[in-house]
Fold this protein.
Amino acid sequence: MLASVDELAAIQALRVRSSEKNKMTRDHNGFRKLLIVLTKAGKVIALHTGDGRIIWSNLLPSLRASKLGEMPSALRIYQWQVPHHRVMRENPTILVVGRSGASSVAPGVLCILDSYSGEELNSQSFDHSVAQIIPLTLKDSSEQRLHLIVDSNSNAHLYPRSPDALNSFINEMSNQYFYSVDIQKNAIRGYSLQKSCDFNSDDTYCFSTKLLWSIIFPSDAERISVSEARKMNEVVHTQAKIIADQDVMYKYLSKNLIFVATVSPKAAGEIGSAAPEEASLMAYLIDAVSGRILHRVTHHGAQGPVHAVVSENWVVYHYFNLRAHRFEIAVIEIYDQSRADVLKLILGKHNLSAPMTSYSRPEVMVKSQSYFFTHSVKAMAVTQTAKGITSKQLLIGTIGDQVLALDKRFLDPRRSLNPTQQEKEEGIIPLTDSLPIIPQSYVTHSLQVEALRGIVSIPAKLESTTLVFTYGVDLFYTRLAPSRTYDSLTDEFSYALLLITIVALVAALFVTWIWSEKKELRDKWR
């Protein structure tokens, strides 16, 4: 009996779900994942990376509009618990933080969801506002990740509120610092934490903050345009960088490094709103613990909008050059000179494995360069891999709602017009005034991500591969191999040919052994 149309459709759907890339299980390469996204309306959606289908969705009750007309707002989504040692009996969970109203001083809301089912496991309303959310690297015994939520009074509240989490945090509190960027007041401030809140000493999970430093930019000369910092989970393969003459340069790898770009007041508007003589852009590298300005550079005749990304020891930022009437991308690389002191190494007064401190004045060396770029930019990101060995690529969201992958080698400040043979062997590309746009480098190919707003890159288990997710009105997901798949076989690899080759080699070895034995026997009878 032939199947009906509905039965054929059901069979086809079953085949799609049971295909290798669409299974609801983990794979050894780390390609099959759930993309969990949060909308501004407070709806959480889990998408399968294999075919983009919706696994579950949940419009959180605590973020729905109330009968009094208050409109809650969702802020951010974070990893809450990844139970590596309890995988068989506990699912990973996520944290959603929002506000119970539209105002910035409205009380906060916390929701914890099961990553696999979307079930809301816990919901909690705060008696304080949410001004800043700081995910920490610390975890408690149940592998819940610790978070600090800073309110509008600059008090920090620890979550989860458990004795184990409190003990873990107290032990490391002296090493915890954070900073805030106040665009309205045109200031950046750095804080440390103290043991109890000023207004509520009974709340052991509330900590007051101490102002350590502040940088207030003069409003009549500079206005903050953008600030960026390194990702907390970024992996750096090596601190040393060997250059062409066999010399070694040591990267300045401080997780406290932040990049701040300011523009002159007249250049804060749209492109063309200021004359080149009135416009300027200032780029700062600041230590978030001490507030020390490590480097400052001024671009005269430049204005925003500014987009930037920070990775390892380098910063890349995009702006508009009014004098040249073209967009530019600039790169800054910062190196630690104190670790390159050969005399200290010979005398044994310096240890490369010694911990770095932000309170000592660093001896840094900075290299920078700028290049013309064809497109206006909406978002920027950098590829992340599991061990940090694979070459970096810059992911640029263009004004055409596409994503361009640009090799970091094109943004090497050491590029020169006539590189030496040693520099060519190192991989340095000859200097040009503009960055190349290669059509094959578009990650999105011919597709467009409507109203593109951001790009996220996360590592897979394979070192050669990174997973790229782009979001806007549309969503786009793909896998990217910046240095090609050097650690895995392609899908087109012929395993049958490999098996035939092995069998042929074994047969040839056996035949050769027989001939050798016969020849040896004949030689003995002579």
Summary: The two ends are 78 Å apart (CA to CA). The chain has a mean pLDDT of 86. Residues 240 and 250 are 5 Å apart (CA to CA). Residues 495-525 form the longest helix (31 residues).
